[in-house]
Write a structure and sequence with these properties.
Layout: E1 2-8, H1 10-14, H2 18-27, E2 31-39, H3 42-48, H4 58-65, E3 69-77, H5 80-88, H6 101-105, E4 114-116, H7 120-130
Antiparallel strand pairs: 1-3, 1-4, 2-3
Length: 134
């Protein structure tokens, strides 16, 4: 069994899409092992987005993720990282396939509803950042 981090970003929370995101993963047989509603501060955001430090879009990422409530969850199941990424769709909602979370709900590349770990290594690191008790 794999675990991965999923964040429903501020736009998803503000638009009332938390239940929709959760239900998509639950209908596929995944288990929500931990979940919390939180506000991400700049310190956590900088650790979460550490691989993007120095890139032109870094400050926009940090500012956005800190702009409102976020639902953080650990999703567990077989091939969780790969399948969660497929269900989310590509980062740019305008390019995401219909039927994916981003394809159905994302407004643009910045307001794209969800984040999911992109590898097993990232999942381990990100779960530990948001859920150190696990």
């Amino acid at each position: 069994m794999e675990r991965t981090l999923v964040l429903v970003k501020p736009d998803g929370v503000k638009r009332g899409l938390v239940g929709e995101v959760i239900s998509r993963f639950e209908r596929l047989g995944f288990t929500i092992k931990a979940m919390k509603l939180m506000c991400i501060d700049e310190d956590l955001a900088s650790r979460h987005y550490a691989e993007h430090i120095g890139k032109s879009f870094y400050s926009d990422l940090v500012e956005y993720i800190c702009s409102g409530g976020v639902v953080a969850m650990v999703v567990e199941g077989e091939s969780a990282v790969e399948i969660v990424r497929k269900v989310m769709g590509v980062t740019n909602g305008r390019e995401a396939a219909p039927g994916t979370i981003r394809g159905d709900y994302a407004v643009n590349i910045n307001e794209n509803i969800v984040h999911g770990s992109d590898s097993l290594e990232s999942a381990e690191r990100e779960v530990a950042l948001f859920f150190p008790e696990l």
